[in-house]
């Protein structure tokens, strides 16, 4: 099963890369140099993926108002993560608490040595220790499987596809006096359809990695029902009338 999800993720990346190559070539055609369009696209891709690789952790922690903690700050959370890291054979990640006012947890960092796992205060208040362990095992599985990097790159590629599709339309319009007008129609269709295709592929990558983390997390704790119970509790909590945010939690 794990191999299936990995192959599916790889196939999705191949598809997204193919879209980028196609868009770069089309833009190059309209500006008079197919290779120029390809090389510009390649340069942008490298630059954005380097940012995703080196900057995603810092950006995620800042965006979610995270405070990194030590054992004495929140022994329950810290010891759960420490225990899971030992079981998984991983370096101890940084542990953080987010002040976002909804129950949630996430992992970030480009590799296990650079990882951080975070829980929000509402999550800590809502779950039992067993349920918390199930949720954090899911996040530690993301760390072990390098899912954070995979999903960061998927998001970057999807953003680039949308951006380059728009640039392609501008290139077609700018060269409309010298090229067949049918090219403009093609580029307009590409601007509409390619971002949707990229978004669907990105969601597919995310879904594949979530399934893999569910499976790995259940094996890590030996109690897959703990995560299931936590997710049911989170769903009820986020759907409650008193919760003004009413947003779906993810774990």
Explain what this protein looks like in three dimensions.
This protein is α+β, with helices and mostly antiparallel strands and 251 residues long. It has a single domain (2-239), classed as Metalloproteases ("zincins"), catalytic domain (Zincin-like). Helices cover 72% and strands 7% of the residues. The protein is built from 8 helices and 4 strands. It has a 4-stranded mixed sheet, with helices on both faces. β3 and β4 form a beta hairpin. α1 (2-31) packs across α2.
What labels describe this entry?
251 residues; alpha+beta; Zincin-like; four-stranded mixed beta sheet; 8 helices; 4 strands; 72% helix
CATH class: Alpha Beta
What is the SS-derived class?
alpha+beta
Major sheet details: 4 strands, mixed
How would you sum up the global shape? Answer: elongated
Briefly characterize the structure.
This protein has 251 residues and is α+β, with helices and mostly antiparallel strands. 72% of the residues lie in helices and 7% in strands. Helix 6 (147-174) packs antiparallel against helix 7 (182-221).
């Amino acid at each position: 099963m794990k191999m299936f999800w990995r192959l599916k993720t790889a196939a999705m990346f191949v598809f997204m890369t193919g879209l980028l190559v196609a868009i770069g070539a089309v833009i190059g055609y309209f500006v008079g140099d197919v290779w120029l369009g390809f090389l510009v696209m390649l340069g942008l891709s490298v630059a954005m993926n380097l940012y995703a690789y080196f900057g995603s952790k810092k950006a995620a922690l800042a965006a979610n108002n995270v405070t990194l903690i030590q054992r004495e700050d929140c022994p329950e959370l810290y010891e759960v993560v420490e225990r899971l890291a030992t079981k998984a054979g991983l370096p101890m990640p940084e542990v953080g608490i987010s002040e976002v006012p909804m129950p949630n947890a996430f992992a970030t960092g480009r590799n296990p040595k650079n990882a951080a796992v975070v829980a929000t205060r509402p999550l800590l208040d809502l779950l039992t220790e067993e349920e918390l362990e199930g949720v954090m095992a899911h996040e530690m599985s993301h760390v072990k499987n390098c899912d954070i990097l995979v999903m960061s790159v998927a998001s970057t590629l999807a953003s680039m596809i949308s951006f380059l599709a728009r640039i392609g339309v501008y290139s077609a319009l700018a060269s409309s006096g010298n090229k067949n007008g049918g090219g403009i129609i093609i580029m307009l269709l590409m601007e509409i359809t390619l971002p949707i295709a990229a978004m669907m592929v990105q969601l597919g990558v995310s879904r594949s990695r979530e399934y893999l983390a569910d499976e790995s997390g259940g094996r890590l704790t030996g109690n897959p029902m703990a995560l299931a119970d936590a997710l049911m509790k989170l769903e009820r909590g986020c759907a409650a009338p008193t919760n003004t945010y009413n947003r779906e939690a993810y774990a």
